[in-house]
Amino acid sequence: MIMRKLPKIELHLHHEGAAPPSFIQQLAAEKNVDLSGIFKANGDYSFSTFNEFLSTYEAACQVLKEPEDFHRLTLSILEKSAENGVIYTEVFISPDFCGGGDLTAWREYLAAIESAADIAKKDLGIEMRGIVTCIRHNGPTLAKRAAICAAETASKFVVGFGMGGDELVGSQADFKFSFDMAEEAGLGLTTHAGEWGGAESVRQAIQDLSVTRLGHGVQIINDSNLVTEAMDKKITLEVCPGSNVFLGIFEKLSLHPIDSLLNSGVSVTVSTDDPPFFNTTMTTEYNNLKDVFGWDEDIFKVINQNAIHAAFCDEKQKLILLERINTEWTKT
Ligand code: ADE
Ligand code: ZN
Q: Are 109 and 70 in contact (CB under 8 A)?
């Protein structure tokens, strides 16, 4: 099986988190910004803990200023995704970085991102959708502004609302107002839960925020009632194994619960989160799952079918994706 070429669906990719270091360094040079502190000698992003990761991430975002920067970023990340066989990707885009939550500015950033997505679709055949994302450690007030941006621009392209950031700051329920607003606008809902937080964080995400997907969600492995609840409520996990291992949540992939969760019957999907930060790609993730857990074409087909069922795009798009997944993930 030529892993890189096989079609893949990705549901969990942070727009800024997918920026290659070389892309950020290029922008820094163009804008005369000194970002040398966030890179290692070999050019990789430099951080060791999750909090350092968030600081490095936010420092890199300093050079993403104009809508044009986000247009270029979108082209660059979709090119990389398409190279790795991704045919459909849902990307977390944050108004906090695109105009600071101002709706008029947000519309300009969004137009620049969407026009890049149109080009990538035409040139590379990859479909992108946006999940407007608030940042938990920036607090509920800014989250409300992000939710207004999301609700006002809901469309065929903007299909979801989500929350990233530090899961250990505040509680999921603090963001209920924003998630309710997004739900009323018809958007799909997801939040980072069960990455760093435990059962309570996941329960609030499901009960208070009414999400149908959990960003990561892997900590439910420690609570059998939650595993059953996730199955009964058909909650889908956006699992990012390489990210979890890189950030030290699990010591190595063989100790990661993705295979157990799948075998328990939970709807599991695979994504990269922030690929250049964690030195990964979708191809790398799939190859590692094949090597460590013996996943084969049948399992990868299920993983991608799960992703299509949980995707926030319309049914017509889902049928097109299903057709490709079902025909191309076959044993040779
Ligand atoms: N933003 C980007 N990557 C993230 C992660 N893994 N967890 C929470 N917020 C994030
Ligand atoms: Zn994430």
A: yes
- Residue 277 CA: nearest ligand 1 atom is 3
With respect to residue 318, please indicate whether it lies within any of the assigned structural domains: yes
165 within ligand 1 shell (Cβ under 6 A): yes
Looking at the 3D structure of the chain, how many domains does it have? 1
Q: And the tokens for 141? A: 């007030």
SS3 183: helix
Report which bound ligand comes closest to the CA of 91: 2
Q: Which of 192, 218, 243, 244 to mutate to test the pocket of ligand 1 (most atoms within 8 A of CB)?
A: 192
Q: What is the pTM of this model?
A: 0.98
Quick one: tokens of 90?
């849902």
User: Residue 289 sits in a domain of what CATH number?
Assistant: 3.20.20.140
Confidence of residue 1 (pLDDT cuts 50, 70, 90): confident
Q: Which ligand 1 atom sits nearest the alpha carbon of residue 16?
A: 2
| Nearest ligand, CA 134 | 1
Range of the domain at 76: 7-19+67-331
Residue 285 counted as domain residue:
yes
H runs (alpha helix) in the chain? 21-31, 50-61, 67-83, 103-124, 140-153, 176-184, 199-207, 224-232, 241-246, 258-264, 282-293, 297-310, 315-328
pLDDT in tens, 170-229: 999 999 999 999 999 999 999 999 999 999 999 999 999 999 999 999 999 999 999 999
- Residue 80 included in any domain: yes
Please work out whether the CB of residue 17 comes within 6 Å of at least one atom of ligand 1.
Answer: yes
Query: pLDDT digit string (tens) for 62-83?
Result: 999 999 999 999 999 999 999 9
CB 112 within 8 A of CB 73: no
Å from CA of 243 to ligand 1 middle: 9
Active site residues: 195
Residues with CB under 5 A from ligand 2 (ion): 273
CA–centroid distance, residue 12 to ligand 1 (Å): 10
Per the domain annotation, does 44 fall within a domain?
A: no
Check pLDDT > 90 for residue 276. Answer: yes
CA of 274 to the centre of ligand 2 (A): 7
